[in-house]
Design a protein that fits this description.
Layout: E1 15-21, H1 28-36, E2 43-50, H2 56-61, E3 67-68, E4 71-78, H3 83-93, E5 98-101, E6 107-108, H4 112-120, E7 128-138, E8 141-142, H5 159-162, E9 175-176, H6 177-183, H7 194-203, E10 208-220, H8 230-248, H9 254-266, H10 269-282, H11 285-298, H12 303-311, H13 317-332
Helix pairs in contact: 7-8, 8-9, 10-11, 11-12
């Protein structure tokens, strides 16, 4: 499908964009504007204020009731209950046949929705979630040569195994309404990695992810965000895995079950990778080598991690990796509040 921007908005499927926000006064206006600038002609935007205590409510008041053909904005407010609850509120209130989520410190580039819908219409009955690659906004700005995703998306038949290693999904994607009817919504008890828990549930229910390699959205690496709380993130990963095993044990292959249980016993591979990066920054090269090997053992499909682990074994490899870490940190103007 090529979207005809001259057509009547009502002739195109309605898409609901859901933006959960908590104390997002500095960025939520930018996010809203990015949705309004989309080239796709028929959107509704639901901004769910999850009990903000800053100036967010006043900003949202300016948008309340804004409506024109193909662009309706609704702002909702609830007591603070977490991102999962706010997204669920948006799902319940949405009118569209498709849903897209966008965090209140991220933004969508103008062709984002149009391109996803073009791809969706090529196989409208597929049980797949479409998303695109994107850029990362850091204190140093955006580097177009370093997209958010640099690993290849595993094919559908490998996603059950790979998603046990690391999160291959993204909520900034195109979700058919039938997805939530079949898989369910976000688990409000899953405070951390609530997205991964839902993606695990989805993949083991027969859905898959497909990624376009064009860069059509921007993710903000916010210092002090939930992603920076590694210990609680690891606890969330453990809980999500336990729920997945309890729910799908009978349908998991022996390999999948063995890996999931091993990961529960060993710990978070993303956590090991994060610890390796921190050890490199601090010059603790033995610790960095150990964490890299642990990460590679638990994420064998992550080529960049396995490559670093291989380099760590050669003479001078750890010094090379430390210099590389300094270079990468310089790209993003890294500081300790950005640790994740």
């Amino acid at each position: 499908m090529t979207v005809d921007l001259q057509c009547e908005p009502a002739s195109m499927p309605l898409i609901s964009v859901i933006v959960p926000v908590y104390n997002g006064q500095d960025t939520v206006g930018q996010t809203i504007s990015s949705v309004l600038r989309q080239t796709y002609p028929n959107l509704e935007l639901l901004v769910v204020d999850d009990g903000s205590s800053d100036g967010t409510p006043r900003i949202l008041e300016a948008y309340q009731g804004v409506s024109r053909p193909g662009r309706e904005i609704r702002t909702l407010r609830q007591e603070n209950a977490g991102c999962g609850s706010a997204r669920n509120r948006g799902i319940a209130e949405a009118h569209g046949g498709f849903v897209i989520f966008c965090d209140a410190d991220d933004f969508l580039l103008p062709p984002f929705v149009e391109r996803l819908m073009e791809e969706r219409t090529k196989n409208p009955s597929a049980k797949e979630i479409l998303y695109s690659n994107g850029y990362q906004m850091t204190p140093a700005g955006i580097r177009p040569d370093r997209p958010v995703y640099r690993e290849k998306m595993p094919p559908a038949h490998r996603q059950r195994r790979v998603i046990l290693e690391y999160n291959i999904g993204l909520f900034t994607g195109l979700f058919p309404r039938s997805f939530f009817e079949e898989v369910g919504v976000f688990d409000v008890d899953q405070v951390y990695v609530e997205d991964w828990e839902l993606w695990l549930r989805a993949v083991y229910s027969g859905w898959c992810f497909r990624r376009l390699e064009e860069n059509y959205w921007v993710s903000t690496w916010t210092p002090g965000s939930m992603m920076s709380n590694r210990e609680r993130m690891a606890d969330g990963e453990r809980t999500a895995l336990e729920k997945t095993i309890a729910r799908f044990r009978s349908s998991m292959t022996p390999e999948e079950l063995l890996f999931a249980e091993r990961r529960l016993a060993v710990g978070s591979p993303i956590g090991f990778s994060s610890e390796a990066e921190q050890a490199l920054r601090e010059g603790r090269l033995r610790d960095a080598r150990r964490y890299l090997r642990m990460a590679a053992q638990m994420m064998p499909t992550q080529r960049r991690v396995t490559a670093k682990a291989a380099i760590s074994r050669v003479p001078g490899g750890m010094r090379l990796l430390r210099r590389r870490q300094r270079t990468v940190d310089g790209y993003v103007d890294y500081n300790d509040s950005m640790r994740r």
